[in-house]
Amino acid sequence: MSLIDKFESLIDNPVNSPFTREFEQFTREFGRFTREFEQFTREFGRFTREFEPFTREFGPFTREFGRFTREFGPFTRVFGQFTREFRQFTREFRQFTREFALFTREFD
After folding, report:
1. Long-range contacts of 1-5, Cβ-Cβ distance < 8 Å, separation of 24 or more
2. pTM exceeds cut of 0.70
3. So what's the pLDDT on residue 14?
């Protein structure tokens, strides 16, 4: 049934037209949706009220952790530089020990 036919049946018989039935079905489904959404918002509100004390208690920890990470940052940069240099040193030392081993074999 085309949309024009639906509108004509609505004009001829507004109570029993297919358009009216579809609209009633839509309003029922929309009502179900709104009830489910209201239930969701109630449950979400309950959750946020229960979660709020935790966030208040956790707030000082996050501030302290942020302060710690800001203060610890320069150390990690220096330590990273140290590890890169130490890695380079170990590569060079490994190369030196190989060459030294070859050198000492010449005297065996």
Report:
1. none
2. no
3. 65
